[in-house]
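Quick one:
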Amino acid sequence: QVQVVESGGGLVQAGGSLRLSCAGSGRTYAVGWFRQAPGKEREVVAAINRSTGYTHYADSVKGRFSVSRDNAKNTVYLQMNSLKPEDTAVYFCAAVRAGLGFPPTVENGYDYWGQGTQVNVSS
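Output:
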């Protein structure tokens, strides 16, 4: 059984930075970060293949967000810089055990989900 737990959310002013962590148990092939703002559908933010380091970013966060992994700690990070009010959302970490190549970029590509962590960006 795989479990993932997010941490690191909070309140930050526009232009600021936050780093989210996704701590996992069990062996996984890829980890994705998703977010859901009030009244909106959940969307992918970034994803990473934990073996190769292949990454994917949503267009809205390219150049501002960076996903990385520390396999020794079984943890994936989402570094968020130059935050904007429109980045306000609940951020979810998700993991999938098996796969090849680039990480999944859709919700149904992942089997295990965390409970989410709130990120609020004030203007």
